[in-house]
Amino acid sequence: MKLSYHTGKNVGDAINPLIFEHFLGDEVLDGNPSSRLLGIGSILGLKSHPGCQKIVLSSGWADDEATYGAKPNIDGNYDIRAVRGPLTARALSLPDELAVIDGAYLIADVLKRSKPAVKGVIGFIPHHKSLDFYPDWESIAEAAGFVLLDVRLEPSEFMEALWSCEYVVTEAMHGAILADAYRIPWVPIRLYGHINEFKWLDWAASLKLDLEIDVAPSKLHSAQSFSGIINRRGVPKGLSSVAARGLLWWRKRVVKRWLRGLKQRQGQLSDSRLLELAVCELRGRCMQVRADYL
Fold it and tell me: How does pLDDT run across 184-198, given as a tens digit for each residue?
């Protein structure tokens, strides 16, 4: 079969080959496109692959057809072994026992933690789209006392940076999941409105987590973007550039103050017992897929 996942630059997607090649091996993942393994990510509406068999192993639904595609018609071409969480299972009218956990948790079996946290290092993990909306999150993070962890890094580089952190503040859901997998406390945040809450709630429900997502008090964009917005409102170009720089300066100040305040929040972790049970269950289902398709 062929592994199917979103191939954009995002660590939550990029770990797919590492995990599933480890658990299924080349004998199963031989690249034959007549069968597709749907792996980690909200891809059930995006990877329809008409006419071929689809084996689902921890994928999720996102309840946003405009971005993540239409809800799939679960027919005889699907062999569903596990989905990310109970909200996905409910949305697709699947049995409760198919809701297991996000497959990203298996990364701890593949990339073993090789170093302890460094005292005082706090990670800041924006969503990959947020890194496009504002180009200098690194300086914002540094000014607020954080270290930026870029989800566009290769998985091994990202994990090395993650392992150094005492805890992380994360907008990226897989930033929270990967931290949780390595037992690094995390604080969930939202910098922009594009964050899909359904996905977070789906994952959280799989481990009976209560989420309290902190929302940034102001949104950051480049001075050029702000200038264009102001200019379209009839302000002369020269004045709009000055106003944009002032607006950005003020918003950066507000966001940095908010980030510093997040250091007072207690980071959270999923329950270790529930996590181990869910991870063991998903490992077992991976092994069963390997046995069935070898």
Answer: 999 999 999 999 999
Amino acid at 59: S
Using one digit for the tens of pLDDT, what is the confidence trace for 44-79? 998 888 889 999 999 999 999 999 999 999 999 999
Distance of CA 35 to the CA centre of its chain: 26
* The two three-digit tokens of residue 240, written as one number: 């709009």
Options 3.40.50, 3.40.1000, 1.10.357, 1.20.120; CATH of 110-272: 3.40.50
Domain parsing of the chain, residue ranges: 2-104+275-293, 110-272
